Structures are given as structure tokens and as C-alpha cells.
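User: Just a sanity check before I run the rest of the batch. Below are the C-alpha cells for the first item. I only need the designed sequence back.
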């Protein structure tokens, strides 16, 4: 691994200032960043470790929303009684990310900032109509996710928390790749303040997206039966050694039905 400067800023404000250095990278859990550095895929001049910043951690429920600090680990989300009560599907999603090491090191903010096209949390944010708060602004899911491994984050911008409206109903289903445990296809469905939403991860060539054709069916009939015979176009879906675009397209309504049921 190449040499680099390492710092542990005490606050979000200091982290944001330090992140303006050329080729600097913020690190929360390091589950993607460090592996990418070891493989020589990236070579930052500085690594800014924000895992110790207290203001980035914690979970609150108020005003009909669950708000999770960006530095909160997947394991903490999964174990939270507040999340389990308010949005059980979100706790279930967090509890099945990767393995125990990943869940105890990886963070919700790090996952969203990386925006892997097969990551689980983007589906939850999109599927619940959530919002991403940074040190500068608040972004809706549609504004935040801009493409594969791409977000609307600007230089010096740090995710501070993520807010999820508490839905009337919600569900999550993942058809995982056995080795990586990333989603070959993952589907998050919800019915609540943001309407009926169906978000898909793992299948789209450009990352997470909403399956609007399924949303209309579930808006008319919130039941697994509504997904019987439903179809999703294979255009613009991933096709690789794990599954063709057509295979992924066929999985989406099946998983949506299971998530509803």
C-alpha cells in the first residue's frame, strides 16, 4: 500500500476542512476504502478517519421520522429497539449486510457515500423516501444518488445523518450473491408518508432505482397477489456472470411480492 497522511479530526467541521485537500478521502468504517487502496485502485494523499466523531453517531425517533447518525454502524441499526419498532424492515436490512465484521465496522453514511450499485442502504433510503443530511444541505434520495458509485456530494461535504419517514408498512427482500452477500437483486417496498414506493438495488446498471410500474400496482392493491404476472423491463439492467438482465428483471416482482407479503 502507498504512503498517505492520516488524521482523526475531532469534529465534522474540521473533517470537512481537511477533506478539501487534493486527493484526500474520508473514511468511516473503511470497508471499501481500505480494500480499494490495497488493490491499488485508488491512492489518496490523505485518509481522514471520521469514525471517532461523536456527533455522527446515534439514533433518534421524533416527528414521525427515524434519524440515524452517519457514523452509526450497521450492527447498531440492526440492534436498535427504536428502529425495530418504528421500521422493522430497516433493522432487518441492516442485520443482513455483509458479515459480522462488516456490520460492526461499516456505517450507514459510508455505505451511502460509496453508493455501490448493489449496496442495501440505498434501497432503504429510496424506498422509504428518506433524505440525506450533510454539513451543507438536505438532499432527497432522488437528488443524492446520481449513478453508479456516484452521488451529489461535493468537495468538503460530509454526510451527517439520514432520516427515514416512518411508514405504515414496509418490507425488504434480498437475493444475495453468496460470496460477497451483496444484492444480485434487492427490493425495498413501503407505503406511508411518501406514498407507495418500490426501490431496487443490485439490478440497475446505474445503481438504485424506483420500479414505478410495480408502485402503481401496489398503490391499487397492497398485496403479494398484485405482483402476480407483473413485469419489469430488462432494458438498462445489469447482465454479468451471476445473472442476466432478464433474470434480474424476473426477480424484481417476485422479491417485491415477498417483501409485501
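Assistant: Here's the designed sequence for the first item:
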Amino acid at each position: 500500500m502507498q504512503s498517505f497522511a492520516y488524521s482523526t479530526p475531532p469534529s465534522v467541521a474540521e473533517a470537512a476542512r481537511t477533506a478539501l485537500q487534493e486527493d484526500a478521502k474520508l473514511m468511516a468504517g473503511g470497508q471499501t476504502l481500505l480494500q480499494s487502496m490495497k488493490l491499488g485502485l485508488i491512492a489518496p494523499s490523505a485518509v481522514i478517519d471520521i469514525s471517532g466523531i461523536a456527533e455522527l453517531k446515534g439514533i433518534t425517533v421524533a416527528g414521525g421520522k427515524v434519524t440515524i447518525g452517519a457514523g452509526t454502524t450497521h450492527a447498531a441499526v440492526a440492534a436498535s429497539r427504536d428502529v425495530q419498532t418504528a421500521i422493522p424492515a430497516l433493522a432487518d436490512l441492516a442485520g443482513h449486510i455483509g458479515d459480522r465484521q462488516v456490520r460492526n465496522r461499516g456505517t450507514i453514511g459510508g455505505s451511502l457515500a460509496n453508493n455501490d450499485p448493489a449496496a442495501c442502504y440505498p434501497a432503504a433510503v429510496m424506498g422509504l423516501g428518506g433524505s440525506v443530511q450533510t454539513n451543507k444541505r438536505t438532499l432527497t434520495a432522488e437528488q443524492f444518488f446520481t449513478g453508479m458509485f456516484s452521488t451529489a456530494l461535493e468537495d468538503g461535504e460530509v454526510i451527517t445523518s439520514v432520516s427515514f419517514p416512518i411508514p405504515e408498512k414496509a418490507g425488504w427482500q434480498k437475493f444475495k450473491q453468496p460470496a460477497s452477500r451483496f444484492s444480485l437483486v434487492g427490493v425495498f417496498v413501503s407505503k406511508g408518508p411518501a406514498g407507495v414506493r418500490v426501490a431496487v438495488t443490485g439490478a440497475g446498471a446505474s445503481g438504485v432505482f424506483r420500479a414505478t410500474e410495480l408502485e402503481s400496482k401496489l398503490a391499487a392493491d397492497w398485496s403479494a397477489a398484485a405482483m402476480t404476472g407483473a413485469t419489469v423491463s430488462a432494458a438498462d439492467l445489469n447482465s454479468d456472470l451471476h445473472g442476466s438482465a432478464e433474470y434480474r428483471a424476473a426477480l424484481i416482482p417476485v422479491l417485491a411480492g415477498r417483501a409485501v407479503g
